[in-house]
Amino acid sequence: MAETGLQLRTRISDDNTLSVWLEEVPVPQPGPDEVLVEVGAAPINPSDLFLLFGPADMSRARTSGSAARPVLSADIPPQAMASVQARLGQALPAGNEGAGKVIAAGDSAAAQALLGKTVGVFGGEMFAQYRCVNVHTCLELNEETSAEEGASCFVNPMTALCMVETLKVEGHTALVHTAAASNLGQMLNRLCQRDTIPLVNIVRKPEQETLLRDQGASHVVNSEADDFKPQLQAALSETGATLAFDAIGGGKLASHILTAMEAAAASEMSEYNRYGSTTHKQLYIYGVLDPGPTLLSRNFGFAWGMGGWLLPIFLQKIGMQRGAELRARVADEIKTTFASHYTRRISLAEMLDPEVVVAYNRRATGEKYLVLPQA
Amino acid sequence: MAETGLQLRTRISDDNTLSVWLEEVPVPQPGPDEVLVEVGAAPINPSDLFLLFGPADMSRARTSGSAARPVLSADIPPQAMASVQARLGQALPAGNEGAGKVIAAGDSAAAQALLGKTVGVFGGEMFAQYRCVNVHTCLELNEETSAEEGASCFVNPMTALCMVETLKVEGHTALVHTAAASNLGQMLNRLCQRDTIPLVNIVRKPEQETLLRDQGASHVVNSEADDFKPQLQAALSETGATLAFDAIGGGKLASHILTAMEAAAASEMSEYNRYGSTTHKQLYIYGVLDPGPTLLSRNFGFAWGMGGWLLPIFLQKIGMQRGAELRARVADEIKTTFASHYTRRISLAEMLDPEVVVAYNRRATGEKYLVLPQA
What we know:
- Chains A, B: This is NADH oxidase.
- Chains A, B: Keywords: NADP, Oxidoreductase.
- The structure is a homodimer.
- Chain A is an alpha/beta fold.
- Helices cover about 30% and strands about 30% of the residues of chain A.
- Chain A has helices spanning about 45-55, 110, 145-150, 155-170, 185-195, 205-215, 230-240, 255-265, 310-330, 355-360; strands at about 5-15, 15-25, 35-45, 60-65, 70-75, 100-105, 120, 130-135, 140, 175-180, 200-205, 220, 245, 250, 280-285, 290-295, 305-310, 345, 370.
């Protein structure tokens, strides 16, 4: 077994500079309840990008060092430094999830049971050749599942499943999703069809409408279309959706969704109520595609809620047992409902190539990069 | 007993005009479970104003008719007409709450038990000389309580009590309140002192700081002061408040509060987390002092929630039994914790005087008008 392996590190220094490089670190020995995973594949998720690059201007990034061990540097606008005070000077690993083969295991029965198996891991620090983790952060994949197939078995599948779980826990019956043509959105579309939950997909381009309809979506509305508001309200009236998950965050879209939900609810009311309907409308912001401020018009009565939504916090709410049930479903449907598709496969060193960075940092809808740390 | 009585009516017509007048209506006979109340006093709450005047320009209101039966008219900006479509042409009564003597009662034991008693009523339509209501909307006042003393026994007392009840139900330990020098705010300040719940009062003027401190408030911060943000964060760190009730709604204040809560929570964290703290921060908007859009910077992690908060919806959540317990407490403390103070007492006809309208429509902090329908 190798004594050292490469691990991606990112650091923001007080000279307003971001550095990202590959550090050669010792391969750890697993403790009793731990396993050592040879990382075969790790996706770059939107949720990884802020840790990787912070508020740095990646369009002007530059590299030094060798081709095998490049060092990527970029500048941070001075006014953005306040937002990263908490991480200043720290050499942070990154990579929310990935999959690989267990090549060493601690003494516990749970750890030994995974030896030689391919596992998905949601442990952070996955942009690395080796990762030692507690068995509880592993999902044992079925025998015919490869590391590449299982690499994205946590973030998107569990997010989609937990959105539906939120719907059930909070008593809604239909769902709205924005940026719905994303990898996650396509997955949610498959999941809702399989579980027969009405889903209103909001996209921003005509070709995304086509894409989702071709994948069986019944309700797709384009927020850039002139008739967006009436189309949205019609879809909400048809489905009765009172819960939305918003990946965008900034701007007026969240407000438009709540307004349309209220209009759909008010059209069922028999008499005027100046406080609006009593139908509770809920919107969760789970992404930051638009980091600008959220603008709420508040013309949707008083029965509404909005909030941040983060997978780990929600998983804590539903508890270990329910979380394990959801993970087991992901393993069973990883090649169907929860399959991910990748635009490009790259090595750890290629992750630091400025041109490649610009491409995966665009967060273009439907694009997704897979890192192969052993390549 | 009189056969007719005066009742205030408000109507918005499709010629962009608001009319408010006193209608002479028959005094109703109470049904089995109803009582007839001779309304002695009814406060003008901020929550009454939107129904009374809608979006009309009251600074240019005019009257016609006689001094005893005036008709108040005002114009509505054309672009605001869309927001009042649901009430067009309807002659709506108004007045959320009030108190008076029960002068007739239905046959049921519950109704008969109230005959001759002074009751508080939360039934709408209280800007009237007589009001027939179901016994369930009545709060029997103690014998030594007058109609004037009991007129505001629902909206402010129950709102203050239910804010504290929200804190308990949702597991918070300290509270933030904006527009804290209002009648409601002063009441909440008394209630929190009595129940030893730390309260952070946010006001907008130095004299309001003094007012609340003179009433025993420990934490008062002025949102117009240069050092507002550090002062707020210090108060939040000291109290651990993670729940806020905001009467203002529009602008950036809600965002500032959530940001300061997150900063207080983050200062307790041992390591950097790019998703922010896991401390849940909650803000409820219960008023519309600023009807403009709410601007959220979302620099407070993902563990946050915001929502509308409306007393009747909350009362439904906690149920009849708990609601009755809270109402009983109001009756017992109506002259102390839940006492209201009025700037001026006016008749029904004076409510329609343009100069008086401008005064009570200002929603000036701490000012409150009491209508005496029998005057």
